[in-house]
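subagent[fold] <- orchestrator: predict structure for attached chain, return tokens only, no commentary.
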Amino acid sequence: MVTVGQLVAGRYRVLHPLAEGGMSHVWLAHDEVDDIPVAIKKCALPAGLTPDEEDVFRVWTAREARSFVLVDHPNVVRTLDVLHEDDAPWIVMEFVASRSLQQVLDESGPLPPARVAGIGLAVLEGLLAVRRAGLLHLDVKPSNVLIADDGRVMLSDFGPAVTAEGVRALAGVGIVLGSPKYLAPERLLDGLALPESDLWSLGATLYHAVDGRPPFVRATTAETLRALTDETPEPPRQAGPLTEVIVALLRRVPSARPEPPMVEHALRAVIGQPADRRGLPPAAAPPVPAEPGRKRRIAVAAALIGVLIAVGAVVGLVRPEDRAGSPAVASPPSAAPPAAPAGWYWYISPVGLRVMLPAEFPVSGGVFGVSVAGSATRPHLEISTVADQSANLLETLTTTEGSVGMLDYRRLRMAQLPDGAEWEYTYRSGGLLGDMHALQRLVILDGHVYRFEWEVPARSWVSELSRFNMIVDSFQPSSGG
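subagent[fold] -> orchestrator:
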């Protein structure tokens, strides 16, 4: 029980309540050491847990909250401290004089598309800052978006779990985090926590802001689950130029949602800033059809670098001359590839493996793979076949993880995908590169498993990720596998 005047941790004097949610209560308090106002949140224990499950909840919520102390961004409410008091953790946050987006909507009704686009840009910036720290928000919704008195838009009130490991730990004691109306399908149906899950929730929040209601107006989690299983939400009625980006963000398959740069371009176009409207597929377009054994993201990812224009017969590989001055040539596969846009070229291996690469990526490696050497400014890329054809690709990745000896290694997530599996992690390079951010993606295609390894200096992770997705989506193995 929290009372006005209570002193928490001998430092924070409770003044009055600010907000109340399903699993937390937020209070305004006075920090008597630094003499500043702060917001403090008590993470209430969910009902019905056993003593052991309650211990799991306490340990994980405190551990996850400590991760956010490192996030410092103008569009994210800062976490200042994590306390162990009474029967549940307390989280101390920056106090921001503000109203939530939910309060604004309740008082004023739906907002015009341009205003919502500006709010969406700020929330997206906050989510990217969270992603750069290797974390997730996992509870994006109108009540967790603050409109500050000074005009800033800030993301607040992160879920009790902000990493894939934390989600799994709490799911193990029966806790499904977040508000069902704003949770991505993979969160509700499969228990997966992905960066794309936060983007779906962003789409649902924009939908609510512009239409005055969330995409799914359901009373219970069970009804929401049935709706997500059977259908996609109808397009918003009042979104105008925001319709395309909202519909794209709410695609049911995570890999079919647009990457953050595409979302940013679309939102900036709505508010009149330079943007490429090709950054999103048409609102009415269905998800990209799958090739045998794989769901493609090519229609979405290709928009980042322009629409690919198909050409007639291509006699050989066209690419920049290599550093030795000799053009690289290989026999083309039976079907001609589309023309590579400016700054890209098609690499074709001697056995017909084909992939589109940035022009500055020099290729080396054997017949069955591709290797691109990394540098302080360029990612390291390897594409290879996986000898182990086990159906359990997560087990394959876990086995690989068990043999690594990386300095300061940290797993960010390991997740099953519709067409494979993915392992994201960070480590510290022993050389001049410093902190590294890496991703290994296993893809099932034409009955074979291919491994894509991508490593990049951590500071370049967000800006380079769209290029990796374009590379993966352009990949075509030889007809012989």
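orchestrator: received. Logging for downstream: The chain has three domains: 7-94, 98-286, 303-474. The mean pLDDT is 75.
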